[in-house]
Amino acid sequence: xxxxxxxxxxxxxxxxxxxxxxxxxxxxxxxxxxxxxxxxxxxxxxxxxxxxxxxxxxxxxxxxxxxxxxxxxxxxxxxxxxxxxxxxxxxxxxxxxxxxxxxxxxxxxxxxxxxxxxxxxxxxxxxxxxxxxxxxxxxxxxxxxxxxxxxxxxxxxxxxxxxxxxxxxxxxxxxxxxxxxxxxxxxxxxxxxxxxxxxxxxxxxxxxxxxxxx
Length: 214
Prior knowledge:
Blueprint: H1 2-26, E1 29-37, E2 42-50, E3 55-62, E4 65-72, E5 75-83, H2 109-124, E6 127-139, H3 143-157, E7 166-170, E8 176-187, H4 192-211
Parallel strand pairs: 6-7
Antiparallel strand pairs: 1-2, 1-8, 2-3, 3-4, 4-5, 6-8
């Protein structure tokens, strides 16, 4: 009897999770992002809502603190919180190891950019934006990284009409992010199933080409 009860509980949990997953795929998922980045105040709030608010995930960055919480049936529970002001512990120095020879089948940075150029427009298609607007300035510690980020972004910016509404400028003198961004849209997750299949096939094809196959 005990074994039968355990099996029933496991099957019930499995069926519930399967049903919830199907509902998440069928019903539109809502994504809201709102960020303000100034020298004296930087904050970002993101909300992902499933099944018309039945299940929600919240991400908040404010006052050098990042927090993550989950809400089920409007009952919100904090999950994780971290202060960015805490000193970072320096990792212990490790003995230098001889560099291993790179596998010739690995994709290079150019290969990844080309791959993203094929997949990125398809990723944007299932999203129905109600609002998308942004005007930001971005800089990294390494100016070369800043240039690479901006050149990559502008390469993809014109692959979809929505990214044209987000303007990003380079800041080569100071690392950080400044400006504003606002995004509000609905995503139909089931439409990503053929996109994932396409991305997987495209990735495998590129690996075969790197190996010299057909």
